[in-house]
Amino acid sequence: DAGVIQSPRHEVTEMGQEVTLRCKPISGHNSLFWYRQTMMRGLELLIYFNNNVPIDDSGMPEDRFSAKMPNASFSTLKIQPSEPRDSAVYFCASSRDAYEKLFFGSGTQLSVL
Amino acid sequence: TQLLEQSPQFLSIQEGENLTVYCNSSSVFSSLQWYRQEPGEGPVLLVTVVTGGEVKKLKRLTFQFGDARKDSSLHITAAQPGDTGLYLCAATSILTGGGNKLTFGTGTQLKVEL
After folding, report:
1. CB pairs under 8 A between A and B
2. How many CB atoms lie within 10 A of CB A104?
3. Residue of B nearest to A10 (CA)
4. Distances in Å between the alpha carbon of A7 and those of A39, B4, B23?
5. Residues with Cβ < 8 Å from A7, sequence gap 6 or more?
6. Interchain contact B48–A (C-beta under 8 A)
7. I want to staple B65 with a disulfide (CB 3.0 to 4.6 A). Which of A68, B54, B87, B109 is the partner?
8. Total Cβ atoms within 10 A of residue B75
9. 8 Å CB contact between B108 and B12
10. A25 DSSP assignment
């Protein structure tokens, strides 16, 4: 299995620009999670989908952040407009069902200048 | 929100030494997981502990869950350079809509030198 696939691996953009991060979960997994990792705050859960439906988005920082899961094999996390404080590594993870082991992707390193 | 404090924050040791990493909270955990994260990669699950007092071994790694399920430790025997990485504990809580929410600890960065 290819594992959880995230793209791009690195993204450098300027403040105010729109950023879209992409994730392909492991085939057959029906739960998908977006996490953000920074030195100051560690790993934080942003949003969780189960069967393509958002279940918990309480971790989404503000309205500039949005996430979608149009089908079982694809999810996006969008930041519009981006700000320097959004700079972090964003991870996508999936699991077979809501209570099983999480498999993480390799992350997207985002730098907002 | 559960707050998970890990100690030490950084640890640099020589190959062959033993070490212990701690994960503490004032809250009771339903279960706790330990992950290892290498540079440029996502965390990888090492073990899940569920029962108070539980001890699990994974080769040279020994994981213990406190009797009161508020703390956990990871002990590495005869550390090797391949053990280098960021060690994260994560506590699980049940989401209202179903599923687990993992709250991660602050992390312990381990470096094992030759």
Report:
1. 56
2. 22
3. B40
4. 22, 30, 32
5. A21, A22, A108
6. yes
7. B54
8. 16
9. no
10. P
